[in-house]
Design a protein that fits this description.
The protein is an alpha/beta fold. The chain has six helices and 14 strands. A six-stranded mixed beta sheet has the order 10-11-9-12-13-14, with helices on both faces.
Length: about 375
């Protein structure tokens, strides 16, 4: 199914039922008095998070959502039936805003969470409500109120524990495919990934077992924060991630400098959203299989000195270092938020041993694996 992360829909809540004008007519009760019942409440419209969904594509075809109106009141003080509420299912992470005012109404995050987006109208009052000591036979009723009707803008921000970012062809999709059963498209040309991909990574066994969700977004290029390439349209999905993995090609085919690639991505994050730049980010040097161990270690130490922390060295293609990285991520996500997988470096550490240091917030970055349905 095509990934869609924005949609506009119209929601219409049900109208309240009208109150009833009625007088009791029974044998032996010639003056039974007013007995008109109230109208029923109109149905409301709720947005409900459904973890079985991961895109807003369904809203391309169904754009109008209308709840049922309440029933009218009846004689013998019978109230009208309440209109059924309408539940509109959307993926967790959906943000809802009023299309007319741009006011944020709310968001749904946890599976089953509900958000009221259109309130049903109240039912009208029957004439029995207006009976008094001075008005024994009221002929007054009220009509049911109209329910809310509004256009809504829906925006999906992917919920994940770990987000992957980097330049095109840094190996993000390869890493996701290596550590989960997700099967993103992988090729030797840039912008292979055109929309976010999710995979659930499971590692360990018994009491040490754990899992987390990893998200891969399209590669970023210079000027992404200003709309260049594809990345700017999907950077918002990284805002919901607890931790970011910044993947860098340690041996670029064009002979570029890996350290400059780090700086380029950091600049785009800072320009796009300073809060995203401040999010905890680990630095991962990928494709070490293209170099000998000593050369990879030397590059890792050099980058570690420049950015003040030792990067993880991995090869997503061969799996080297991926197991250690996954276990470090599990420990980090399980410890409540203290520490960082990129240890501070004074230039003396050996980056070639693929060790995971203490887990410290920075400003920049074989177990069985499985993917959830």
């Amino acid at each position: 199914m095509k990934f869609v992360d924005q949609a506009r829909i119209r929601v219409v809540a049900g109208k309240g039922g009208d109150g009833c004008l009625s007088f009791l007519r029974e044998k032996h009760r010639p003056k039974g008095g007013p007995d008109g019942g109230d109208g029923g409440r109109g149905g409301s419209v709720y947005l409900v998070a459904d973890r079985g969904l991961n895109t807003l594509a369904d809203f391309r075809y169904a754009r109008l959502y209308r709840a049922r109106s309440g029933g009218g009141g009846a004689g013998r003080n019978q109230s009208g039936k309440n209109g059924d509420d309408l539940l509109v299912r959307a993926p967790p992470g959906t943000v809802v805003a009023d299309a007319g005012t741009a006011e944020c109404i709310g968001e749904v995050l946890a599976d089953g969470e509900r958000l009221l987006v259109a309130q049903g109208g109240d039912g009208g009052r029957g004439n029995a409500r207006f009976k008094s000591s001075v008005n024994r036979a009221p002929r007054r009723t009220t009509r049911g109120r109209t329910g809310d009707a509004r256009d809504l803008d829906l925006e999906l921000k992917v919920l994940a524990d770990v987000g992957l970012l980097g330049l095109p062809n840094a190996g993000k999709s390869t890493l996701l495919g290596r550590v989960s059963r997700a099967r993103p498209k992988i090729a030797d040309y840039p912008f292979t990934t055109l929309h976010p991909q999710l995979g659930v990574v499971e590692a360990g066994a018994g009491a040490a077992a754990g899992a987390f969700v990893m998200a891969d977004i399209p590669g970023l290029i210079g000027g992404a924060a200003r709309g260049a390439g594809l990345g700017s349209a999907f950077l918002k999905h990284l805002q919901r991630n607890h931790l970011l993995l910044h993947l860098v090609d340690i041996a670029p085919a064009d002979g570029g400098d890996p350290a400059q690639a780090v700086r380029d991505i950091e600049r785009e994050l800072r320009l796009y959203n300073p809060a995203l730049f401040d999010k905890e980010r680990w630095l991962v040097l990928n494709k070490i299989d293209l170099l000998d161990a000593d050369e990879a270690a030397d590059i890792g130490r050099g980058i570690g000195r420049q950015f003040g922390r030792t990067p993880h060295l991995i090869s997503a293609a061969t799996g080297a270092g991926c197991g250690e990285l996954v276990h470090a991520l599990l420990r980090r996500l399980g410890d409540g938020g203290d520490g960082d997988g990129n240890s501070n470096s004074d230039g003396d550490g050996d980056a070639g041993e693929h060790e995971t240091g203490d887990l410290d917030k920075t400003r920049a970055g074989e177990s069985p694996f499985a993917v959830s349905p």
